[in-house]
C-alpha cells in the first residue's frame, strides 16, 4: 500500500492539537508504516512540497499572512481536515472578535503599530472549503487515530454528533446540572471527550463546541432558572468555542 | 571561504510555535542577530480582563498545549494569594505530582523528538528511530508515562480539567494513582538509560558567561515555590520580580522580551535550575551525571539537554515517593474570601520561570493581568548565544552553519506559542538578499 502523504500545519493556537500526533507515542511508530509526515514543522526539520493526501490544520486564522498560507495549503491538498476548537470555531483567540482589536494591541504591546492582525480570528472554513472537522480543545488523540485508520481502510470517517450528556449517562455519572445545580454545557456540547468534566465533578465548559442540532437557547433558559447571574451565563458560553454560530446566539443576547 | 554572509531561517522547525532566524555575518563577525517570532499574537492579557477568577486557570492553560499545567499552577497560586487561600499539604503534593508528570512528558518530547536528532545529524525522531530503535522506543514509553501521570490526576494530558483555584474539583483517590507505580521499575530504568544516552551525545564545544535565574528553596528541587535566585547573587521574592525587569518589543517579533535591570539578558529553564539547585537533585541522578563528568555548573547552552534528561530521571524518582506517600485531602479545594487585590506568583514550568500577576475586583472579576512566559525571558540570551557562536559559524559551510544556528535556538526548547501569547532558516548570501 502506498503511504499517505500527510501535512500538519498550525495557525494561531497553542500547538496542543498537533501535539496529539506526537502524544500517540508508540502507536505513532506503527502509524508511520502507513503514513508519511511530509510537512510537520513541530516534528521535522525538512518540509516536502505538496500535493498532500491529507492536510490537518490546527489554529484559527487571525493574520493576513495566515489567510495566504491557508489558500496555498488548500490548493496543495486533496483533503483538508480542521482539528481542534481553534480550527473549527475560532477557539480562545476568537474572544477578541467581540472587542476592538486595536484596543487589545494597545493593552498588550508597547508598540501596537508594529502588530499586524485581522479584526477577527476565524476558523479556516470561513476562507476555504474544509472537508472534515474534528472537535475538541484539544482534539482527542484516539479520535484522530480512528479518523486516520478509517481513511487508510478506504472508509468514510465517522465522527460524533450527539451530546456530552449521552456520554455522561453511559458512564453512569450523576448529573451535575440536575442534582447539584452546577452550570453545565453538556446538553448542548458535542461528545468525544468521554464526559471528562462531569467525571471530575464539574460542569462541562463546552470545549468540543455545539453538538449537531444543539438548542443552546433551551439550556440558557434553564440556567436562568438556576439564578445564575446573566453575565456569568454569558461567560460560560463565551469560552473556547464561543464564536461558533450556535453559542454566539446566546452570548449576543447578553451583549 | 566567503566570510560575508547571511543565515536566514524562515520557519524554525522542531520548536513549539512559529519563529524565524536572521543572522548577518561580515568579515567573520556576526553583525546582526534577529530571533523573530511571527506566531500570531493571541492577546491573552487583554481578553482575560472581565473574566471571573475561577475561569482563569482553564483559560491560561490554552496559552500552551505542551505545558498547560504550568499555566494552571502559576495562575492558581497568584489568585490564591488574593483570595487568601493556603492550600493543604495534600493538595500541594498532588499539584507537584501533576506538575512533575508534565516535566517528564515535555522534557522527553524535547530531548528525544526535538533536540537529540540534531546532535546525531537526523532531521526528525522518525529517522532517528530507524537507526536507534531501542532508545526511541524506551523514550516514548517514558514520555507516555509522564502523560499518564498528567491524565490520571488531570483527566487528560493536554489542558487537564481537574485543577482549580484552591485545589482540585474532586479528591483524586489513592487507588487512582497507584496503577502508575505498577510499571515504575521499568520507567525508572528507562529514565536512567535516557540520561546515560544523552551524556554520550557529541555536544558542541561552546561557553558563555550567563546569568541563570531559577527558583530555590532549601527543602527540594524547586517546582512550585521558592525565592528567585541567580548564580550571580540575585535573590528576590516573587512580588519583586516585575520591578527588576525591563520590557522590550522588537520590530521583528510578536513576543515581548525581558532583561534584568542593570544586569542584562538572563536564562531560565532546566540549565538554570540544574546550576542553581544541583545539590538538591536526587543522589542517584548526580551519580550518573558525575560518572560522565558533567557536574554543575554547566555554562554551555548545548548542554541544556543534559539538565533536561537529569530532571527527567529526578522527576521519576521523586514521583515514586510522592505517589507512595500520597494521602487523600479531606476536601478537594478551599474557597477563598472574595476581595479586591493584586497577586503575583512564579512556578517552574518545564522551560523555566513562569510569572503571572492578576488584579481582581471585589466581585472576583479580573481587571488587570501580566504574564511573563519563560521563552520571552530567554529571547535576548538566545541572540547572545548566536553572536558568541559567530566564530564557529563562519568556519562551517552554509548548510552546516544554518543547522548549528538552528540547534543553538533549539537548546532553549523555545515555546513560541507561549511567547506570543520562533524559526524558519534560509541561507542566502548577503549580496542576494540585497538584490531581492
Main beta-sheet annotation of chain A:
5 strands, parallel
Strand content of chain A: 5-15%
User: What is the overall pLDDT average of chain A?
Assistant: 94
What is the gyration radius of chain A calculated from CA atoms? Answer: 19 Å
Q: Provide a count of the helices of chain B.
A: 16
Indicate the low-confidence ranges of chain A by residue numbers: none
Topology of chain B as a string of helices (H) and strands (E): EEEHHHHHHEEHHEEEEEHHHEEEHHHHEH
Number of helices of chain A: 11
Structure described in brief:
Chain A has 255 residues and is of the alpha/beta class.
Key traits:
heterodimer; A: 255 residues; 5-stranded parallel β-sheet; 11 helices; 35% helix; globular; B: 436 residues; 16 helices; 14 strands
Outline the fold blueprint:
The complex is a heterodimer of chains A (255) and B (436).
Chain A: E1 4-10, H1 16-22, H2 26-31, E2 35-40, E3 52-58, H3 64-76, E4 77-83, H4 85-89, H5 101-108, E5 132-134, H6 141-152, H7 164-171, H8 196-199, H9 216-225, H10 230-237, H11 245-253
Chain B: E1 5-9, E2 19-26, E3 29-37, H1 44-47, H2 56-61, H3 68-82, H4 89-119, H5 125-131, H6 133-154, E4 163-164, E5 167-168, H7 174-177, H8 184-199, E6 213-216, E7 227-230, E8 235-236, E9 245-249, E10 256-260, H9 270-277, H10 283-291, H11 304-324, E11 341-349, E12 352-360, E13 366-372, H12 374-388, H13 390-395, H14 398-410, H15 416-419, E14 425-428, H16 430-435
Antiparallel strand pairs in B: 1-2, 1-14, 2-3, 4-5, 6-7, 7-8, 9-10, 11-12, 12-13
